[in-house]
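Notes, p. 3: input format for complexes.
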Amino acid sequence: NFNAGPSILPQAVLEEASKAVANFNNSGLSILEIGHRTPLFESVMEEARSLVKELMNLDEDHEVLFLHGGATVQFMQVPMNLLDTNETAAYANTGVWGIKAIKEAKLFGNVNVVCTSEEKNFNYIPKNFTVPGDSKYFHLTSNNTIYGTQWHQFPKTGVSLIADMSIDILSRKLDFNSFDLIYAGAQKNMGAAGTNLVVINKNITGKISRAIPSIMDYRNHIKEKSMLNTPPVFAIYVSMLTLRWLKENGGVEQMEKRNNQKAELLYNAIDNSSIFKATAEKEDRSKMNVCFVMDDQTLEKKFLDFAKENNIYGIKGHRLVGGFRASLYNALPLSSVQYLVEKMKEFEDSKA
Ligand code: PMP
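Output follows (352 residues plus 4'-deoxy-4'-aminopyridoxal-5'-phosphate):
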């Protein structure tokens, strides 16, 4: 299952989540029919938040929230909370998701797009740009799902760093404390659709004059320990199970090792092939979404049919890039990539 999102989850998580729908922790009730302010659910929320703190090695200033609405809500909630009408925020434009974040930020203040890779259909990560020191913050998309590019190094800009990490959250070791805000829709690398992880340095809140609706104000969510209103309980439960699985399997360090192995195997196969070609610049290739094409479009269609016949799911590329995209999230086993590579070779040999 190479789906880009919602995407593969560990089998153990699916089994545990199914059990909880029927009978949660031997309570005789489903996780779907208990109050969120019961000890049963409060312990789920607490465990999920503390696992994130532990796995990301967060300091005391960083708070962990599980909010509603997916990453798209953060495109708006970030500037609503952090950018005053007369202030300017710096944004990187590395593709569709960055563009959407820029559009929303413009509703609240000024936006300075400090770099873009648009002229090459976003197939690389911009370098050598400057972020003015008076920018309120600098926002980037750490991994670009559609184009298969990823920031392997984060620029030192001297301003507050904010990242949409929807794709590569918990997939590699990073100094997460160096970010003032990180957000990620759960449905790619850490759970089920319906919730959104927000990691926020609490010191950046409360610095603007705008009145913020209660449900949109990060300070209220921090104060209420992510229980301001009814949270998306099932999605948070699945995230908690996925975080437990991640910890049991060696944490972020082991995930990174496995992810490197998987990406290397697939990119090597593509680079050594005479019919498949990777689309992103080599140094900026994503370890999470591997995008590749063929010169011959009729052959592309044939390979998609062949993949389907061989039970390979979710490798059709996004329409803006075409070809194929294999997503290699944490839960995807190495054996799936080995199988894909075998089948690619088999297809290629049959066309020789
Ligand atoms: N950011 C990135 C990098 C994404 O890949 C996506 C979804 N594909 C989004 C944001 C939007 O996420 P959501 O649908 O959870 O709002």
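The mean pLDDT is 97.
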